[in-house]
């Protein structure tokens, strides 16, 4: 599948679903939209051509592309990272078989991570389906696996620190 088609499909999977039944931005004052001009949302390969053209695109030290916004955007043109946050479809293995499970994205600080709020099943399922689509293009899949591995490392590190 072409990466742009794949990404647009992911956008549409998430179009009518949100992490909570109510607006989670009211809990934290929209914390995840308050970066500065050096932080940004990681973009999947080819995504820079699909998002709001008012966003600045920067590259981090690893060569990853990030979109930097001013805290406002056209919701229909926001990056996939914003749409799936605070979850991430992590790739796991059981007896050699690959499967996808959602985990909280530990790389940022969202109040929903504390577990006091129930993420809707609809959102959770949509994020899982996004993971399946991201594997349908080799370039997208390679990048997605790298991000998934990073999140798994965070989770492992958390476990180690808890047991210290
Ligand atoms: S996803 Fe988390 S950080 Fe972002 S608005 Fe909702 S509660 Fe706040
Ligand atoms: S692109 Fe939109 S949704 Fe994403 S952080 Fe910026 S304002 Fe928030």
In one word, what is the shape? globular
The end-to-end distance, rounded to whole angstroms, is 45 Å
> Helix amount, in percent?
25-40%
- Spatial order of the strands in the main sheet? 1-3-2
Question: Regions with pLDDT < 50 over 5+ consecutive residues?
Answer: none
Q: Mind telling me the C-alpha Rg?
A: 16 Å
* SSE class: alpha+beta
The ordered string of helix (H) and strand (E) elements is HHEEEHEEHH
**How many helix segments?**
5
Residue share in β-strands? 15-25%
The distinct ligands, each listed once, are: iron/sulfur cluster
- Total beta strand runs: 5
Q: How would you sum up the major sheet?
A: 3 strands, antiparallel
Q: How many domain modules?
A: 1
Q: Round the mean pLDDT to the nearest integer and report it.
A: 92
Task: Characterise this structure.
By secondary structure, the chain is α+β, with helices and mostly antiparallel strands. The chain has one domain (3-15, 27-162). The strands form two sheets. Strands 1-3-2 form a three-stranded antiparallel sheet, with no helix packed on it. The radius of gyration is 16 Å and the shape is globular. The protein contains five helices and five strands. The chain starts with a helix and ends with a helix. One iron/sulfur cluster binds at residues 32-33, 41, 69, 71-73, 78, 82.
């Amino acid at each position: 599948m072409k990466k742009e088609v794949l990404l647009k499909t992911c956008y549409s999977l998430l179009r009518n679903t949100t992490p909570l039944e109510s607006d989670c931005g009211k809990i934290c004052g929209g914390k995840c939209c308050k970066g500065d001009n050096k932080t940004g949302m990681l973009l999947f390969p080819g995504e820079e051509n699909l998002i709001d053209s008012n966003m600045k695109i920067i590259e981090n030290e690893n060569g990853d592309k990030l979109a930097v916004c001013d805290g406002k955007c056209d919701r229909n043109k926001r990056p996939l990272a914003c749409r799936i946050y605070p979850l991430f479809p992590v790739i796991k293995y059981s007896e050699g078989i690959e499967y996808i499970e959602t985990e909280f994205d530990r790389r940022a600080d969202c109040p929903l991570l504390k577990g006091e709020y129930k993420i809707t099943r609809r959102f959770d399922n949509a994020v899982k389906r996004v993971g399946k689509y991201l594997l349908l293009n080799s370039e997208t899949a390679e990048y997605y696996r790298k991000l998934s591995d990073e999140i798994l490392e965070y989770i492992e590190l958390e476990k180690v620190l808890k047991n210290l």
